[in-house]
Amino acid sequence: MLLNDQGALAENQNIIITNTDSLTLHEDQILPFDYWLDQKEPIKQNLKSISIWLNSDDDIDALANDLSSISLIALNFPKFGDGRAFTMAHLLQEKYGFKGEIRAIGHPIADQAQFLFRCGVDSIDIPEGQDPNIWVKEATRMSRFYQRSVENIAANSKY
Amino acid sequence: MAHVKPIKPLKTPVSVTANLLLKGLTVYLAPDGTWSANIADAAIAEDLAQEAVLLALANVTVKTQYVVGAYSFAVELVNGKATPIGMREIIRAKRLPTIVPDGLTPKPEWENQFTAANADSDNSASSDNVAKSNESKRSENV
Amino acid sequence: MYKENFSPLAPASAPQDVKMYKYDQFDDEFITQRIEQLRSQISRRLAGELTEDEFKPLRLQNGVYLQLHAYMLRLAIPYGQLNSTQMRTLAHIARKYDKGFGHFTTRQNIQYNWPALSDIPEILEDLQKVEMHAIQTSGNCIRNTTSDPFAGVAADELTDPRPWCEIIRQWSTLHPEFAFLPRKFKIAVNAAEDDRAAILYHDVALQIVKNDAGEIGFKVYVGGGQGRTPVIAKLVREFLEPQYLLSYLDAILRTYNMIGRRDNMYKARIKITVNETGVKEFTRLVELEWQRIKDTGFNLPDDQKQTIFEHFILPKFESYQYDDAKFETNIADNNGFDYFVKNNTFGHKADGYTIVSISLKPHGGIPGDISADQMDLVAQLADDYSLSEIRATHRQNLVLPHVKLDDLFTLWQKLSKANLAAGNIGLLTDIIACPGLDYCALANARSIPIAQMIAEHFDDLKKLNDLGDITLNISGCINACAHHHVANIGILGVDKKGEESYQVTLGGSSRKDADIGNIIGRGFSGDEIVGAIDTITKVYLAGRKNQAENFLAYYRRAGQTPFKEALYNVT
Questions:
Q1: Does this complex have an ipTM over 0.95?
Q2: What is the pTM assigned to this prediction?
Q3: Which residue of C has its CA nearest to B20?
Q4: Which is the most buried residue in C10, C84, C376, C541, by most CB within 10 A?
Q5: Protein fold of C25-129
């Protein structure tokens, strides 16, 4: 189940690929970052819409030149306390002007949903076994922020 | 064949303690799976197998959100009752600091030797997810 | 110990309008939502929808720890400033939800030792009414910003650092990008000549300076800290134009969030990042990011900055002719008052006023502890004698920042009745001590009983004054909450084969001449430690050139040898 930044739920159509042995490419796959680096050209030739996922210790700068050909970047939370995805989302949006979808995957917790959206994440892949209703509620928990959102929009923020 | 570790006997007997999730107060696991504020009520394990049983029993109420952070700790037996050995557990068992401020105005529930009734004391729970042993005593990062 | 039976004072004056940051509707609504969020998180925890592992960082970010005996709640006192109404609320919380006392910490905060988890939302609602909260007093996020407890009125300061602290407080509050950092993050701001906030032991230290053109700016240091690896913060920028404060902090935090270590909790603080990366390279990374965002990122616009600054316009101080002769007579007639004036007062910007420190280290007391009745008394004395304003210090004391010299004697008398007049500020018994093994789940040894034994041994104010300026800090474990590394005499409690043992360090300083103490030798048992401290003071007294050579100066000149010889009979 996916949660978007408006607090709405949607079915997840994507598959996160972890094992790329004898992989047949499909548009609904989210490909590992290393695999992408390795197979850039064949992937570009085979897929119209490219989705890749990054671990929290992957270098997003290495994506800089290819961002226009990528439609979805998923940022993995190996554990919820690893907060690098917040900065990675911020940089993708603000530094690189990434136009595609940014998604949080792995093990975020509902209480991080709003922080993620404020940093530029568009959708969250709700971890297996969690009640999506809690996520919906937390997605709009606060309506007062001391900081502007990553787009530098002042709506709901104090300054 | 897989290597089977020999079962080590415990260095000292152990009891199991936790804190009440709602109030935070120190409690001890009694033999019937209930929790008591009084360490004298604590169940005592003399070997690893008994310790595992106690931790599994404790885990039942960890899972029902009654207690938090259950672990076993070293005790000695005085008149058949568990008595803590280390300073940390001695202080916890007193349920007060060693230097008690004069101005302290206790509330009854802090001092009562209550025995808490558990929602569920079924001890048939599996021993997976067993609460941590005293090897990794609970602590908060400052 | 606490004196509970002093008679209540008839209110001589009502709370005054203290010049401090006041919440607007936004701030109030923000707090309401935040409390509602915690209430819901607690319900989810109780319903089993959050595991303890998931709940822990959430409660920690609201100041809730689970300690040895119970939960502990740490409240934020932004940069240590309080008004009397807030202090009365702190007393109310101590009575209603706790055991009648609270503990002021080295972070200028206060913590309570016994609240129930279920009471915490209600406590936070009581706090909200007086514009206080517990947000980010723990957790791997940006903590309460600390500063000089004399800020705004200290005779030795360049400008008032508090508005900058408030700007940082707001910027850092629930900062979405920096709520799950590798480790906790502490920022301190100082604008005084002296350093009364130990800023060089913070993750970011901002010293307000003037450049050659006479403009105010920040000298920026990064990577200070204590814990198991004490490090003095390193200079990363000589002069930061103040309009860039927030974008520069964003750049530091962003760099740290990405490259700070997450594989080992003990190597996750920014001090390790800076050490392992090298200060030059770390600075380069920060500057690179900052140059990119300094003009496009967020910096507080001038008009909004101005709005914050207006909260801190100093109160009107009365111009009057104070009675110098009477003051001198009171000093001559009262030994205790003499020491109180000497040690517990500090120069105020306004003529006829003084800054008064209230020692929370009474003879035999528990450092930093204060009873609810004492809190109420301090609130009343603030109303009567300090324009309703109070400060908390990183040395676990309180301050009445605006006391008229003419009122000082009466104030001292009233403090005396409540056991709050100890004239020992800056002396050996002005001990910083953490709660230690008496309360803390992390501790390995007790701190409080050691502090008490030392205070009892050195109970002669005359001798203490002869010993002069000296800091003694006691931590109950290597996490160093009581700043033992940076004390002239530091005591670290360790667990040695199941017994409490106390290691002594000498030569630390948390002021401008920041230095980290060195271990003098093998540790001492709880029974031996007072004797060891006594020996150390005797070595100093015997060896100093004169009284003007304070303990630290002597140690720096003489080194460890005379202490080692005396403590361990080494020749």
A1: yes
A2: 0.93
A3: C70
A4: C84
A5: Sulfite Reductase Hemoprotein; domain 2 (3.90.480)
